[in-house]
Design goal:
Blueprint: E1 2-4, E2 16-19, E3 22-25, H1 30-42, E4 48-49, H2 57-60, H3 65-70, H4 74-80, H5 106-112, H6 125-144, E5 149-152, H7 174-184, E6 190-194, H8 201-207, E7 213-220, E8 245-250, H9 256-273, E9 277-282, H10 302-310, E10 316-320, H11 326-342
Parallel strand pairs: 1-4, 1-5, 5-10, 6-7, 6-9, 7-8, 9-10
Antiparallel strand pairs: 2-3
Bound molecules: 7-[(3-aminopropyl)amino]-1,1,1-trifluoroheptane-2,2-diol (FKS) and zinc ion.
Length: 343
């Protein structure tokens, strides 16, 4: 399996986040992608290739025009306003406030285009976000051209980013961009299987009214876990998308037994949908030692995930999402891929 990787991801680094009232170094850090890349080499998964440069047309297919235009302007505007730390919003247009007027002040515009303060910008953030977009599209092109599978080693991740908002370490929804691009390249049906610990609220929102893109999400119950405001089992899609959204919320402490039962059920529904391509939002923050998550998967479980996905027998595009146990992130993420390749 080929991996697409860009060193530009590392331009997004040193950002901070707010956890339990304290400003801490971001968990979503450059070492994550570097360690996965090193493991791809060590495990001899296959060649590592640089992405091709793409214009933003494919981003406009899933994101709002004004939102896409906003992203590259954030850091220049923030630093021009004399602000020094990570750029992020701190006021959001919730119920009862105007959600239709974009404020002029950059910190307010950031709030307008976010659902939380979890997607901060530093000077190199846009360059990294754009590189992850290029990585996803270049990996998608390999699958379009007939590869059985490809790995887009995207960083930053994407599945919390919606049509017009960032959040949860995510800016552009790499998996959604790739899925829509594959549709535009002639695929009739795409299934997105999101195995990250957190619900992929952005992906769900983008495709919620669509019958041509099935979205299946395995995640911690939003009643008790981030992103909290989406991901319940009764969210099944609307209009022609009715029945094409599948959520599998699970309690803290979930380990392979219950998790794999949900994976099986998601795969049965995907097989019934008969997609031309399966896009996997690959998060490995389901790991027992993940510092911000509360599932109990072990390193031995990840190859079994890959093997189950391989049984679908469909061209498969893996897009990297979360995973914060940096020491084991390479073993776990690449474990899924070798499990797929051997499966
Ligand atoms: C609450 C802290 C919430 C935000 C967690 C973001 C998770 C991101 C992710 C992604 F794949 F996008 F990277 N922190 N105590 O893992 O879903
Ligand atoms: Zn996650």
């Amino acid at each position: 399996m080929k991996t697409i990787f860009s060193p530009l991801h590392a331009r997004h680094g040193g950002q901070t986040e707010l956890i339990a009232g304290e400003i801490v170094p971001g968990f979503e850090k450059p070492a994550r992608a570097e360690i996965i890349k090193a493991r791809v080499i060590e495990a001899q998964l296959g060649p590592i290739l640089a992405p091709e440069n793409h214009d933003l047309a494919a981003a406009h297919r899933v994101h709002a025009t004004d939102y896409v235009a906003f992203l590259p302007t954030v850091w220049p505007r923030w630093s021009a306003a004399g602000k020094l730390g990570s750029a992020m919003g701190f006021a959001w247009p919730t119920r009862g406030l105007r959600g239709d007027v974009v404020p002029e002040a950059i910190e307010a515009a950031l709030g307008f285009y976010s659902f939380d303060g979890g997607a901060g910008f530093v000077a190199g953030t846009w360059a990294a976000v754009k590189s992850a977009y290029d990585v996803a599209l270049t990996a998608a092109a390999l699958v379009r051209d007939g590869e059985a599978a490809a790995f887009g080693l995207c960083r930053p991740p994407g599945h919390h980013a919606g049509r017009a908002f960032m959040g949860g370490y995510c800016y552009i929804n790499n998996a959604a961009v790739a899925a829509q691009w594959l549709r535009d390249q002639g695929a009739a049906r795409i299934a997105i299987l999101d195995v990250d610990y957190h619900h992929g609220n952005g992906t769900q929102e983008i495709f919620y009214a669509r019958g041509d893109v099935l979205v299946a999400n395995l995640h911690a119950d939003p009643l008790i876990e981030y992103p909290f405001f989406l991901g319940h089992a009764d969210e099944r899609g609307i209009g022609s998308g009715e029945g094409a959204n599948h959520n599998f919320p699970m309690p803290f402490g979930t380990s392979w037994g219950a998790w794999s039962t949900a994976l099986d059920e998601a795969c049965v529904r995907i097989a019934r949908f008969a997609p031309d391509v399966v896009v996997v939002s690959l998060g490995v923050d389901t790991f027992e030692k993940d510092p911000i998550s509360r599932f109990e998967l072990t390193s031995a479980d990840y190859p079994k995930i890959g093997a189950r996905i391989a049984r679908l027998g469909r061209p498969t595009l893996f897009i990297m999402e979360g995973g914060y146990a940096v020491e084991e992130i390479g073993i776990n993420a690449v474990g899924v891929l070798t499990g797929f390749a051997d499966g």
